[in-house]
Design brief:
Layout: H1 16-24, H2 33-48, H3 58-73, H4 79-96, H5 98-102, H6 109-120, H7 130-143, H8 164-174, H9 182-194, H10 204-217, H11 223-242, H12 245-248, H13 252-262, H14 270-287, H15 304-309, H16 316-325, H17 342-354, H18 360-374, H19 379-389, H20 399-414, H21 423-434, E1 438-440, E2 443-445, H22 447-463, H23 466-469, H24 473-486, H25 490-507, H26 513-519, H27 528-540, H28 543-556, H29 563-576, H30 581-596, H31 601-624, H32 634-649, H33 658-674, H34 682-695, H35 701-719, H36 727-736, H37 743-755, H38 758-762, H39 765-776, H40 790-807, H41 812-825, H42 838-855, H43 857-866, H44 869-881, H45 886-901, H46 912-918, H47 932-942, H48 949-960, H49 965-981, H50 986-1002, H51 1007-1022, H52 1040-1052, H53 1058-1071, H54 1077-1089, H55 1095-1111, H56 1118-1130, H57 1137-1151, H58 1174-1185
Antiparallel strand pairs: 1-2
GO molecular function, one term: GTPase activator activity
Region (Disordered): 314-338
Protein name: Tubulin-specific chaperone D
Length: 1188
């Protein structure tokens, strides 16, 4: 896991040249919008890498900022370059932080008027240039901090509105109500400007009153009102942060009263609530003088080395003295004697309520506020705050309250405000929070609570001396490790691991801390399965943690709402049993038995799974300890038997949660069998058999899987040598289901037969193989329903392989039948609404044949040679290697390499050395068969191997005529390149042409093959690949054009498929170029298509003829060429056939061809007229519309 994590630490900024060039070209590219956008993207990409290490930009920032400011100050700068520069500045400030960047802005008095002029020219409603307004406001904020009295800049101006102070304030106010980032910059500007020493008391009061009016009169239900409130509150928060206490103290009560009166904390907008809490806490801080409380807990000096070695015993007394000095007995009572305003209680009340807010950011802000304010309170009031926070952890409180309370406790502990005397009260609450998980229907809440509880443990480790934490060390360690390995959420596991690591380092008293940390680090806890099955076993090996982990699984996790966690819990208990089998047997087994009787489906399911795993693990442990006579307790066995019978009879497996209970029962039956638990009662045996056999055909595949895992174990333990069960009868029950009309019955029982043990298969091997072969062949399924049964055929093929491998077939006739069946399955091209579902069968059939050949190579090698099995399977694999589906090509490529290299001596295989040369072992990992250009580049080389040409061309033809453009292009190029290299070889051309003809003959009327093949032939004709047959003096012995014409003529007889007919038209047009009988017959067929019943066929035929006559100008004599072309173009071939037939006949006369005659329609027998279905007219309409 850790090896797959890639981290990158940068040492310096390497994009200086790129960034400088982009900035310098800003004005140059100002007239090119596309160039500006490209530059901005490059700029972002260059700086984005430094988001986590922005300090690396510091040496270059001043140069970038000065360059950009010089551009914006230049009055000749185009508007587009002006705004582009501010976008660059914004992105720099985003990466490095606005406080670091704004210090680099020029801040001279002369800049003030320049910036004000630029801001006045900006439009608030221009949403494309908000970066400009944002940076200008930040720039104005740094300029307004110049150490000069602002009134000096006004000169003799008497108009109040024109005074520089009022202009700045009014300008900033205008931006407080916007929704973009410039609102934050305006708030920062006002907070800095209004808190200037020269504006003391003159403007800040007016602005606070204006802000409070905004809060009172703004409508919180509108976006405009929310924006106004957000801007006002943000500014108030910053003013109370940056302003002097003596100046703001008079305004603090008014602000607090207004916030309470307007009920800002109840507004739906999260950001408004968060900022209001920030204002409240800062107002509260104004009421209290800044001070460092004398009662605050201070840990003193800290040494990681001392914590880990625990060798500095001579310093213990000094440390104890330090702790005693921090106790409340050492406080100076006079330092705590000061008045606390009544408003502080209101502030704390608001913050405590905000700890229960529905949004995390509000709770987090409130927690920090409580920490800050408590740090200025006397000890008595601080203790009251801590006690008040306990209300967040009542059992009736929601998860939000628990989360907020944990955050507040962490803040108090981190600041030293939670004294050690509170730890006995707080630690139990934190231990509860670490396991908080409130179930709500089919899900639960609480991950954020557990995460915050880990944060509390982390902060306590840094805050307290080890002696203060010592009484709680074992409990905290157990709780943290439980969360580390067993929490459902990865963020909680990692948070607990970090908290445990911090405690080990800071406290130094966690047992086996370093050993555990080396295993349960950040990366290791990222995999949940690894945590439950491996890390838990390692940690459970330490006796301090064993029982805690086991108890957590057997009490809490076994009834978890998530079924995946319950399954992992059972696996965890299986592995943990060996750490303390006695405790498991005495304490855990009774708990699990209670869970199996629960009315809660989740608890019952978890109990069944865990019970089975624990029984099996106990059996393994006692067998390893050679306690052969060991048996599970009699009461436990009887409880399990009764449970299974009652659940099967009570129909619990059929109602709500039946799927989960079926999985649990099947797992329990499997583990009972593996544990050698004796079952003699017929009632129990029948119940178990019925549970398994009724679960096998379940519609959910995971549920099926549990039954299929239980079946072989059950048969081996309770059927083998049984006097009660007749194994042949049971097997017949399974075989009958292979002929079921239900999809899942066939699929499930086909899988089941493949899992059966040898003793059951041996006695009826012939019947088993026969049943699987019948199930595997598509011929045994109604063609209409062949698609839904594709999965059952695939599973039957797979089971045939498993049965043969299990029994080791000696009868060669049976092996021959199986191989014949598998070869038939490789030609399964069933299609349904899901697509080519037959591909599943083909993949499995190919794989099964190869596995059989490899498995029985030594014992049946002569048989395979005699029947040419290797060549047959190679041909099948080569065909699938050229198929359209990427997954099939990948599988075929893997099997091809397996066949070529599973043994060194493959002398019986034709051209083996040539194949191994093309497909060398070194290329196996580098060839990506799923990528068409890579796959067909190899296939092009394989085409030169004659014994496999037919199979390769068959596969290529289907891919080349497919609808996927890239696949069709690469497949066609493969053939074109090969034929181009062999144009001068008449023998090779004849061989390839003969393969095309054989495919047409073999797959006659099979549109899946014929249509793409004809498309490929059309492209080959168009590319001139068959021009060798144009020369009458050629030495070719093949009459390819004439034979192709005959076969294509047969294909189009009685055809009503528009797409196929159009492809046939194209082929006839290609054949027109060949003189003699081929041209004459091709033209006859094309002229017949001009009067086809489908208008679209007539129209396309005319278009193709026109193109053909233009391409081959020797077809039409010069005198009639214009007349022919006019007929083809001027006639509307979509109109009624009777209208176009005379024009077609004219063409026949021009070319001297006989005019086609209509077939005589035979008179129907004078029978009673049958009433026509009303839908027939609709069907006829659809069929006719198809032709347009």
């Amino acid at each position: 896991m850790e090896e797959n994590i890639h981290t990158q630490v940068l040492n310096s900024f390497t994009g200086d040249e790129v960034v400088t060039n982009i900035i310098d070209s800003t004005v140059k590219h100002s007239s090119n919008v596309i160039a500006l956008e490209a530059d901005l993207e490059k700029f972002k990409v260059c700086l984005n890498e430094y988001q986590e290490q922005p300090h690396l930009l510091d040496p270059f920032l001043e140069g970038y900022v000065s360059r950009l400011l010089s551009i914006v100050k230049d009055k000749e700068t185009p508007k587009s370059a002006f705004h582009q520069s501010f976008k660059y500045l914004y992105f720099i400030s985003k990466v490095r932080g606005y406080k670091s960047v704004m210090r680099l802005f020029s801040h001279e008095v002369a800049d003030l008027e320049v910036i004000m002029k630029m801001l006045s020219d900006q439009s608030i409603t221009d949403f494309e240039s908000w970066e400009t307004r944002y940076i200008l406001l930040l720039w104005l904020a740094i300029v307004c901090m110049i150490p000069f009295d602002m009134s000096r800049l006004d000169g003799k101006i008497k108009d109040e509105n024109q005074l520089i102070v009022n202009r700045v304030i009014n300008t900033a106010k205008a931006f407080l109500g916007v929704s973009d980032k410039s609102r934050d910059a305006a708030a920062y500007l006002l907070s800095r400007f209004l808190t200037r020493p020269d504006l003391k008391g003159s403007k800040i009061g007016d602005f606070i009153n204006w802000s409070l009016e905004c809060l009172k009169f703004s409508n919180v239900t509108t976006m405009t009102g929310v924006n106004a409130i957000t801007g006002a509150l943000t500014t108030l928060a910053l003013i109370f942060k940056h302003g002097r206490r003596d100046e703001l103290l008079d305004f603090a009560p008014l602000v607090l009263d207004t916030i309470e009166e307007c009920k800002i904390n109840e507004v739906q907008n999260t950001l408004v609530r968060k900022i209001s809490i920030k204002v409240v806490q800062r107002v509260g801080l104004i009421f209290l003088k800044p001070r460092v409380t004398s009662w605050r807990y201070s840990r003193g000096t800290r040494s990681l080395t001392e914590n880990l070695t625990a060798s500095a015993t001579n310093k213990e007394s000094n440390k104890q003295d330090l702790i005693n000095n921090t106790d409340e007995s050492n406080q100076d009572p006079e330092s705590e004697d000061f008045d606390i305003p009544e408003e502080v209680e209101t502030v704390i009340g608001i913050l405590l309520v905000a700890l229960e807010d529905t949004d995390t950011i509000v709770r987090w802000s409130a927690a920090k506020g409580i920490g800050r304010i408590t740090g200025r309170l006397p000890l008595e009031l601080a203790d009251e705050v801590v006690e008040a926070m306990h209300s967040c952890f009542f059992y009736r409180e929601q998860d939000c309250a628990w989360h907020g309370g944990c955050l507040a406790l962490a803040e108090l502990g981190r600041r030293g405000l939670l004294l050690p005397k509170h730890l006995p009260e707080v630690v139990p609450i934190i231990l509860q929070a670490l396991l908080y998980d409130e179930r709500r229907g089919s899900y639960s809440v609480g991950s954020h609570v557990r995460d915050s509880a880990c944060y509390v443990c982390w902060s306590f480790a840094r805050a307290y001396h080890p002696n203060q934490i010592k009484p709680f060390v074992q409990k905290i360690a157990n709780a943290l490790l439980t969360v580390t390995v067993f929490d459902r959420e990865v963020n909680c596991r990692r948070a607990a691991s970090a908290a445990f690591q911090e405690n080990v380092g800071r406290q130094g008293m966690f047992a086996h801390g370093i050993d555990i940390l080396t295993k349960a680090d950040y990366f290791a806890v990222g995999n949940r399965h690894h945590c439950f099955t491996q890390l838990s076993v390692f940690i459970g090996g330490f006796e301090e943690y064993t029982q805690t982990l086991v108890d957590h699984l057997s009490i809490i996790k076994v009834s978890h709402w998530d079924s995946a966690i319950r399954e992992l819990t059972s696996h965890g208990l299986f592995h943990l049993t060996k750490t303390d089998p006695t405790y498991i047997e005495e304490k855990v087994l009774p708990r699990l038995l209670e869970h199996t009787l629960s009315t809660d489906v989740c608890a019952k399911h978890g109990g069944l799974l865990a019970l089975g795993e624990v029984l099996h693990s106990l059996h393994i442990v006692h067998c390893q300890e050679k306690q052969e006579g060991y048996k599970i307790g009699h009461q436990t066995i009887e409880h399990i038997k009764k449970l299974l019978v009652d659940m099967e009879k009570g129909k619990e497996l059929r109602g709500y949660g039946g799927e989960m209970l079926r999985k649990g029962c099947c797992k329990l039956i499997e583990k009972m069998a593996l544990s050698n638990i004796s079952v003699d009662e017929s009632e129990v045996l029948d119940a178990c058999w019925r549970i398994i056999t009724t679960t096998i055909p379940h519609t959910e595949l995971p549920v099926q899987g549990y039954a299929l895992e239980a079946l072989p174990s059950f048969c081996q333990q309770y059927v083998h040598g049984s006097s009660y069960f007749d194994q042949d009868k049971l097997l017949n029950e399974l075989l009958i289901q292979l002929k079921s009309n239900l999809k899942f019955n066939r699929m499930g029982f086909a899988k089941a037969i493949g899992t059966l043990p040898t003793f059951m298969l041996k006695t009826m091997l012939k019947e088993v193989l026969q049943g699987l072969m019948e199930c595997a062949l598509v011929e045994n399924v109604d063609s209409v329903d062949a698609g839904p049964f594709a999965e059952s055929r695939r599973e039957a093929v797979h089971s045939m392989l498993k049965v043969i491998q299990t029994t080791g077939v000696d009868d060669k006739s049976q092996l021959s039948d199986v191989l014949d069946c598998l070869f038939q399955c490789t030609d399964d091209y069933t299609i349904d609404s899901r697509g080519d579902v037959g591909a599943w069968v083909r993949e499995q059939a190919m794989s099964s044949i190869v596995q059989i050949v490899c498995h029985f190579n030594k014992t049946h090698d002569e048989y395979f040679k005699m029947h040419n099995t290797h060549v047959k399977i190679l041909k099948v694999v080569f065909q699938q290697l050229c198929e359209k589906i990427d997954r099939v090509r990948v599988k075929a490529g893997q099997l091809l390499y397996q066949l070529l290299y599973f043994k060194k001596d493959m002398g019986a295989l034709p051209c083996i050395e040539q194949l191994r040369e093309i497909l060398s072992k070194s290329k196996e990992e580098t060839i990506n068969w799923a990528v068409p250009n890579e796959a067909f580049a190899i296939i092009e080389k394989l085409l030169s191997i004659k014994p496999y040409q037919y199979s390769l061309i068959l596969g290529i033809s289907i891919s080349a005529g497919g609808i996927t453009e890239s696949l069709a292009r690469h497949a066609t190029d493969c053939v074109l390149n090969f034929l181009g290299e062999n144009q001068e070889s008449i023998e090779e051309m004849d061989r390839i042409s003969e393969h095309f003809l054989n495919i047409l003959k073999t797959h006659n009327k099979n549109d899946r093959v014929i249509v793409p093949l004809l498309k490929l032939l059309e492209r080959l004709f168009s590319s001139g690949c068959f021009d060798v047959y144009l020369d009458s003096d050629t030495d070719s012995l093949s009459d390819f054009p004439q034979k192709l014409l005959t076969l294509v003529k047969e294909e189009c007889k009685g055809c009503g498929d528009i797409k196929k007919l159009l492809v046939v038209v194209n082929i006839f047009c290609c054949l027109v170029q060949f003189e003699g009988e081929v041209r004459t017959k091709s033209l006859q067929h094309l002229f017949m298509f001009l009067c086809h019943k489908y208008p679209r066929v007539r129209r396309v035929t005319a278009e193709q003829l026109y193109t053909t006559f233009l391409t081959y100008d020797d077809i039409v004599c010069e005198d009639e060429q214009e007349n022919v072309m006019n007929i083809l173009t001027d006639v509307s071939w979509d109109q009624n056939i009777e209208m176009v037939r005379p024009e077609r006949n004219k063409l026949c006369e021009i070319f001297g061809l006989p005019i086609p005659k209509l077939k005589k329609v035979t008179k129907q027998s004078s029978a009673t007229p049958v009433k026509k279905d009303e839908l027939d007219s609709y069907k006829d309409l659809v069929s006719r519309l198809q032709g347009y």
